[in-house]
Amino acid sequence: MQIDFQGSGLQGARPPPDADRQRMMWINADRVLYLGLLGEPTVRCFGGFSVYLSLRGTHRICVDGGDWQDCAVSVVPPYVRHRIVSGERMICNLLVEAETVDVAALPAHLRAGRGAVDAPAALQRMREALDILRRADNRRYASTAAFDEAFFGAPLRTRALDARVQAVLDRIKSDPNGHVSAQECAVAAHLSVSRFLHLFKAETGSPFRSFRTWQRARSLLYYVTQSSNLTDIALDAGYPDSTHFSHSIRQVYGLTPKSIFAGSRKLALYASGAGVPRLGYH
DNA sequence: GTCCGCAGAGAGAGAAACAA
DNA sequence: TTGTTTCTCTCTCTGCGGAC
């Protein structure tokens, strides 16, 4: 396969293959790229468009209680429960935050995908982008647009949102582990709580609480390489105690926090841009 | 079209108990 | 001591009718 490093969007990309540095995660406020162990998750439910990509073979996926499907690439819409198993230990998972994109303008396989996807060209592009990334010296994308360019062929068009809702989104995403209530947001938006909740759902496509829960669970990804105990990490991530932490994380990722951290020990983490939570223990 | 308020249903948060 | 499970209560979601 011919790999073109020009225009890949990678900062300082060059091709030194190194099998020991394969497990990695790149994350910013709008996108996540995870390349690592899948484990044995039960039902999971992410708040963004989720793309699973097998590295060589295939995986099996079951979306919203439907039939199991065998495929190399699959897509799960935001807030849809699904299960996944793979014959390979490693898997690639891309996450596109739903509120950051104009759904109508998404590539067809993302927009309409629900489980296995038959999109050979998209599969080849994503595998090539992944290959470039795995060979790169500095695995950071300069921007969300550069990430989109690499994996989807072009920057994904952003969604135009109501300014009041956008302000709330910015507030939550800039500090996902801070607790902000619907009432506070409604006051800030100069709306009643009822009206705010309706408007939020209409604009973003997801309920306020679901979005807040997802953002908090998502912020866990910034901590997965830390070696502190889970209680400290739960508090840092904005959970009142390890009870909620364990419960919420299992609902989102289908794995216990313990197994997530165990599987992330050798993971190289590349975080950038807004949304990186404040680190530091209580 | 935008906004408000009500009410029933359901999910999330908090407390306690249990297991390793 | 740490992490997980279970149970109960509170808060949020959502559909609806109505006012402006």
Number of helical runs?
10
Strands of the biggest beta sheet: in what spatial order? Answer: 9-6-3-8-2-1-10
Radius of gyration equals: 18 Å
- Average the pLDDT over all residues and give the rounded result: 80
Distance N to C terminus: 49 Å
SSE pattern, N- to C-terminal: EEEEEEEEHEHHHHHHHHHE
Structure classification? alpha+beta
- Within CATH, the superfamily of the largest domain carries the name Jelly Rolls
Q: What would you call the shape?
A: globular
> pLDDT under 50 segments (min length 5)?
1-9, 11-20, 278-282
Protein name: AraC-like DNA-binding protein
Keywords: DNA-binding, Transcription, Transcription regulation
Domain HTH araC/xylS-type: 166-263
GO molecular function: DNA-binding transcription factor activity; sequence-specific DNA binding
Blueprint (SSEs and pairs):
Layout lengths: L23 E4 L3 E7 L10 E6 L5 E5 L4 E4 L1 E4 L5 E5 L3 E8 L10 H4 L3 E2 L3 H16 L8 H9 L10 H12 L7 H7 L4 H12 L3 H12 L10 H7 L5 H12 L3 H6 L5 E4 L11
Parallel strand pairs: 1-10
Antiparallel strand pairs: 1-2, 2-8, 3-6, 3-8, 4-5, 4-7, 6-9
The chain binds a DNA duplex (20 and 20 nucleotides) through helix 6, helix 7 and helix 9.
Protein name: AraC-like DNA-binding protein
Pfam families: HTH_18 (PF12833)
InterPro entries: Homeodomain-like_sf, HTH_AraC, HTH_AraC-typ_CS
